[in-house]
Amino acid sequence: MTSIDEAGGVSGEGAVSGALLDGTRRALLRKIAVAQAEQRVPSVVAAVTRGGRQVWSGARSCVNGHAPDDQVQYRIGSITKTFTAVLVLRLREEGLLELGHPVERYVPEAGLGPEVTARQLLAHTGGLAAEAPPPWWERTPGSLRPRLTDVLGAEPFRHEPGLLHHYSNPGFTVLGALVAAVRGTTWEEALRAEILEPLGLRRTGVRPEAPSAGGWAVHPWADLLQEEKVEELGLMAPAGQLWSTAADLARFANFLLHGDKEVLGRDGVRELRVPAAPGDGDSGYGLGTQLLHRRGRDLAGHTGSVPGFTAGLWVCEEEDLGAVVLGNATSQLSSGTLAAELLELVAEAEPRIPEPWRPLPHVDRKLLALTGLWYWGSDPVAVRLRAGGGLELGPVKGGRQSRFVPADDGSWVGLDGYYSGETLSVVRGPEGEVSHLDLGSFVFTREPYAEGGPTPGGVVPEGWRGLPG
């Protein structure tokens, strides 16, 4: 018989260097205590990270004096998918695959044809079924599905590839096989060498290592428990096999916010969080990450659920915050919702203090000459030169701004907002003077509809005029 928590510890909370106020810490502890009691979970452990480090952890357990700490392993279910996505993007960064290429180029044995791409599988838009054929893959040995065709089934598609978002566990099995094929190793070996070891996630792995929590089912109508079996998922492991701890997932949350030069840089982890598929209401999906808009904040991360365990991890770039929740009961604890609530609690109780404004270290006269008012047709917009070295273009008052970073050819590339990925070019006249700005065919001029200017289609000969009375 497995114990409810095969770990010692105190029933309460812990913290790294006491970075949060006492009132905030108590509110966090109360939040998980209420969840453990009301949702009837054998144990809950949680952690919060801010500014690149873990600032709080807490736990509650039904066994007096025996609550888990942030080093106890729980199964994390589909949070595994985000790890798999990082491995795929690493291959793309190294030029070993293109996300838009058919996956059959790398794993022809999947038999998915020429239309399904790695990007579609990462975003769950490949049209594949949500689950593997019976028996239920989470409750049966992976040895029952030794080949990809066993995971995908005789009819793997439920929708036309690229048509819509349809969550697919088999899709991430194919991505795991893709990683193994391109690397010439196993998914597990690639995971350990390329993510776990460089990030120092020493308590994360495919199999549990003591101390680890046992998984349980809670009777729906009585306060009783039943032990859940733990199965090896085989080829399905890249979709939901991993075990981890609150401390390791807090470290992984920091990675998802800031990147790591040995694993995937800041731009790469940002790409994970770019919306790639719509969801329901305020939800969506990136590349291996779930996206959520709550209370004015954009969150990214993933939830996880396998028999005996639930898990939730969310990060918020704006607040530089992450929150992790782990529980050991089947579908009992709303770990994703609780993790989001912990993040919001800290953001609202202790709003982030911005870094001091600092001016640019030197003046670039050519860039300075581009700042100020420009006109798209008759609409005024402002170009600003920011201390980070980029340009910002947006309405004079209000509205969403778009930031631009320099490209090697002298143009600028949109970093966010409406113009994300678009090219901003500075067009010069015969004497080298700036004529106008070209942004994805939109022309921005120093005067609105100037006679003889570069406005596409020209302007009427009469020019600006009033309306006689």
TrEMBL record:
Residues 451-463 have a biased composition (Low complexity). Residues 450-469 are annotated as: Disordered. Residues 363-446 form the DUF7586 domain. Residues 31-346 form the Beta-lactamase-related domain. Keywords: Hydrolase. It is an enzyme of class 3 (hydrolase). SUPFAM superfamilies: beta-lactamase/transpeptidase-like (SSF56601). GO terms for molecular function: hydrolase activity. Its EC number is 3.1.1.103. This is Serine hydrolase domain-containing protein. It comes from Streptomyces evansiae.
